[in-house]
Design goal:
Elements: H1 3-6, H2 10-36, E1 39-41, E2 48-50, H3 54-60, H4 63-96, H5 101-109, H6 116-126, H7 133-140, H8 151-179, H9 183-191, H10 196-207, H11 209-226, H12 228-234, H13 246-256, H14 260-284
Antiparallel strand pairs: 1-2
Helix pairs in contact: 2-14, 3-14, 4-5, 4-8, 4-11, 6-8, 6-12, 8-11, 9-10, 13-14
Membrane topology: Multi-pass membrane protein
Keywords: Cell inner membrane, Cell membrane, Membrane, Transmembrane, Transmembrane helix, Transport
Protein name: sn-glycerol-3-phosphate transport system permease protein UgpA
């Protein structure tokens, strides 16, 4: 073992760049937001006054915050389960493909390389009320589509765009999980007379439960935080706040409305909410995970 490897500071020196990034881009903004949530800033940002918990009580009593909370719940559940279900279906089908399997897998992974804002613009054009390709297809089915006026259609649009992008991330993990299942187990079940559907629910799905649990946590975090670009480029939170989620509302209140104290209080509540949700997932959902 070299002298450098035996030195006590060697591990810290190797981790220093990552620690600095985490400190600057996570802990520093988190501590600043926590501090600002207890203050009220003036309109010019030149002074601040200690306000105690008034920012939190004002946010929690706001009707628009309750609407954003419901939008976030609907959006997160739809995106998490939609992206995981479609990815599992595609991974199962891709795992059976023998010819040109690498081409199929590469095409299915590509959407994850697209930035959320670009994905939003792509789907916005396809569902554009006047020029969209998919809008014309819906019109042929006598379905009038205009997400700029219809809040339900706007929510469907942002959910579809978010699912499309996150689906590829889930696909990679599900495919790796499927390829890790011993073929002997499936062959033994087939010899015992178990059909494809029964083999999937009794062998494949239980063995994929660790992967599914990990993706459930990651998809929930994605739906809460990483979909801001998608929503901003497709609907901008509209129409009438129909697609305004919690992360988009704190952006509107803080950056556009210049309510830094209220926006900071929302960010603290959002952080607590996601932490509590993750704790619940580890406390109750993980019990059903089979690691062996």
């Amino acid at each position: 073992m070299s002298t450098f490897q035996r030195h006590r500071l060697a591990p810290w020196m190797l981790m220093a760049p990552q620690l600095v990034i985490v400190l600057v881009f996570f802990f520093w903004p988190a501590v600043t937001a926590l501090r600002q949530s207890f203050y009220v800033q003036d309109a010019f940002g030149l002074g601040e006054t200690f306000a105690g918990l008034s920012n939190f009580t004002r946010v929690l009593a706001s009707r628009s915050y309750h609407e954003a909370l419901l939008n976030t719940a609907l959006f997160s559940v739809s995106v998490a389960f939609g992206a995981m279900a479609i990815a599992l279906l595609l991974a199962t089908m891709a795992d059976r493909v023998l010819k040109a399997s690498r081409v199929y897998r590469t095409l299915l992974i590509w959407p994850y390389a697209v930035a959320p804002a670009a994905a939003g613009v792509l789907w916005m054009f396809m569902f554009d009320p006047t020029l969209g390709v998919l809008t014309r297809a819906l019109s042929a089915l006598s379905i009038h589509w205009d997400f700029r006026l219809n809040g339900h259609q706007a929510m469907v649009l942002v959910i579809v765009a978010a699912i499309w992008q996150q689906m590829s991330y889930n696909f990679v993990f599900f495919l790796a999980g499927l390829q890790g299942i011993p073929a002997s187990l499936m062959e033994a079940a087939a010899i015992d007379g178990a059909g494809p559907w029964r083999r999937f629910w009794t062998i494949t799905f239980p063995l994929l439960s660790p992967t599914s649990f990990f993706l459930l946590v990651m998809n929930t975090i994605y739906a809460f935080f990483d979909t801001f670009g998608t929503i901003d480029t497709t609907t901008g939170g509209g129409p009438g706040g129909a697609t305004r989620t919690l992360v988009y509302k704190l952006y509107q209140d803080g950056i556009i409305g210049l309510d830094l104290g209220g926006s900071a209080a929302q960010s603290v509540l959002l952080m607590l909410m996601v932490g509590l949700l993750t704790l619940v997932q580890f406390r109750y959902v993980e019990r059903r995970v089979q690691y062996h």
